Amino acid sequence: MPGWSTGDIPDQSGRVAVVTGANSGIGLVTARELARKGARVVLACRSEARGNAAVDRLRAELPEARVELGRLDLGDLASVREFAAGFPYERLDVLVDNAGVMALPYGTTADGFETQFGINHLGHFALTGLLLPALLAAPGARVVVVSSGMHALANIDMNDLNSEHRYRRWIAYARSKTANLLFTHELARRAAAHGTGLVAAAAHPGYAATNLQTTGPLAEGRRAAERLVRIANRVVAQPAEAGALPILYAATEPGVRPDSFTGPHIAMWRGAPAPSWRAPWTLDDAAGQRLWAASEELTGVTYGALTA
Fold this sequence. Notes:
- By secondary structure, the protein is an alpha/beta fold.
- It has helices spanning 25-36, 48-61, 77-85, 115-130, 132-136, 169-193, 212-220, 223-235, 240-243, 245-252, 285-299, and strands spanning 16-20, 40-45, 66-71, 94-97, 142-146, 199-203, 261-266, 270-275.
- The protein has one domain (6-298): NAD(P)-binding Rossmann-like Domain (Rossmann fold, 3-Layer(aba) Sandwich).
- Helix 3 packs parallel to helix 4, helix 6 (169-193) packs across helix 11 and helix 7 (212-220) runs antiparallel to helix 8.
- Its EC number is 1.2.1.-.
- It is an enzyme of class 1 (oxidoreductase).
């Protein structure tokens, strides 16, 4: 993997991809590079205006790009169902579960879930399950779930998935990122058990400069914190182009192992893609199965073809 770059991405012609949160940052770079290699890419975005702006930007940069907007609000299960019901292709080769929020003040989604758990995990759990028939129609399809090295701060609490007893923004974020890895683990296990050929893998961008870091301070009007974050993004973080490399690697590189976790090779912080350390609790079969069952109950989405 040392030195792996976008130039190493195999030809994606004839493939269909969905990238959530593709209007900016890592999602936009991921969508751009998949389109550059010939994939038809659906940019799944909450804001129609920002999504259309991203589509226009990609078409200006890559006139031959086959890109289109899909309206998707992961914080609203009705929107997730509408997106999946309107998905216009019979097959889906690559699903990148990228969109997310980080360290927000306490809030709830349209369905009453704690915002970070609801968007980062439950929204993507529902989306992946609803798009499963299209994924299984594409031999060797990939699901790439974008987690974070910050998952190591906390395991999930099955007795308080929505952080109703005590809310700490960074712990809630870490739990949602642990949930991403447990979801990947259990999806990979089920895909293998049913002989589907579906590859579920996880990746993380390290510390990449995106809008993700400033959303929380902006939401609360913490201007000093926002300024500090912006300075850190300029001085310390790697650009979104570099942060997207582990995600692109997991989505396109031949031989990617199911349930692998790819991230930057320098201290999980920056650099070329490499196997990344993950907390042992993200490989717990029993925990993955419990989270899966709870996620099905909370979202009402079941994975028919992968029912254990």
